[in-house]
């Protein structure tokens, strides 16, 4: 699924996003389902059980618009074969790198697709509030999400109490990459708490190896990896409820709890004894690309790199990414046991712009456990996962995908969507990125960085 591009293209979203969307608690999604009539081609096939009620859809087409482009689009297209077999309808797939910049424009101009895979809750709210053309999800979809996803996920597809969009793919950001082989060789063990992680950090530093490496350079989006650091730490320090308030600006961006979390990150990232393995001093973090950030692990120049599950795509060809291999990941430990197991991540949401039977049938299929497992089987190269609890991790190819699925399905997991993706564009993809970069590159203080971001928050 779309992983890296989600964050890179948010600068385009800033052109169309409005300020301060607060997603309401889950709505019912009570719309009924429509039917084309006639006998469904899927009658009698177990995998088609949810789709036969939509009737015979032979000859109908569903137009899907998404940012998922080649080569990742092929597994998407392959995963629709069961839908076509069950209904007779086909999917017209359109992937575009200009998705965020064009979607709102197309919808407003009357050129909306049937379905769009929307990668940010803020963009979903923009579409609902600015266009009035988003169709509320049918009951079958709402029921599937209630069954297969957590309440947190349903809330992110809900705007003003109405449920519109089911989750699709997902990624986990609460990971620290390391080398199991390197750890085994040195007798290091994976830490279970933040304090243990800091003790390990000191132990590694004493050997002459820099414990951490990092990179935040990403063109116009430079700084975004540090927003993930801070968001993850706020979840661990202050909890999910406070995190929600902070993202919605119900508490100031520069609240003392936020400053405490950023200083906790600074104890690692601004300590020259701890960083930046393989690249240089603290300031080198700002000039090292996020793609290159963790690569010194393979050379033994650093030991840990905090980055999302999608970082798996950046290891060189031939790297053994597995539990005992050259590279793998562990869950970023908690600082406060009272906050459960917070998981920071991202994902896409299936957003519809009409209620034709074939469109509702496709929405139902994508929200089911059937599709999640078909998609896993049709992604032989790995690099995709879903928070769908009906997904069998054994259908996932790569060990990191399996770890991600297990993390998302953990009954103790408290999932929260990437905060900057929900904030107004002036902040989430503007001042937040800029000031986090200055915090590292120029040594800007925690207070100054957070005060400047707070001052940039739109007044209305």
How does this structure look, described?
InterPro entries: Bact_solute-bd_prot1. Keywords: Signal, Transport. The longest helix is centred in the C-terminal third of the chain and has 17 residues, at 425-441. The protein has 2 domains: 4-172 and 345-417, Periplasmic binding protein-like II (D-Maltodextrin-Binding Protein, domain 2, 3-Layer(aba) Sandwich); 175-342 and 420-456, Periplasmic binding protein-like II (D-Maltodextrin-Binding Protein, domain 2), CATH 3.40.190. Helix 5 (99-108) runs parallel beside helix 6. The protein has helices at residues 4-8, 10-13, 73-78, 81-87, 99-108, 121-131, 139-148, 151-156, 180-186, 194-205, 224-238, 240-247, 256-269, 284-287, 357-366, 369-377, 399-409, 425-441, 446-456, and strands spanning 61-66, 90-95, 115-118, 158-159, 162-163, 166-172, 175-178, 210-212, 302-306, 328-331, 341-352, 413-417. The chain is globular. The protein has 460 residues and is α/β, with parallel strands linked by helices. The strands form 3 sheets. Strands 1, 2, 3, 6, 11 and 12 form a 6-stranded mixed β-sheet that branches. Strands 8-9-7-10 form a 4-stranded mixed β-sheet, sandwiched between helices. The chain has a two-stranded antiparallel ribbon with strand order 4-5. A hairpin with a 2-residue loop joins strand 4 (158-159) and strand 5.
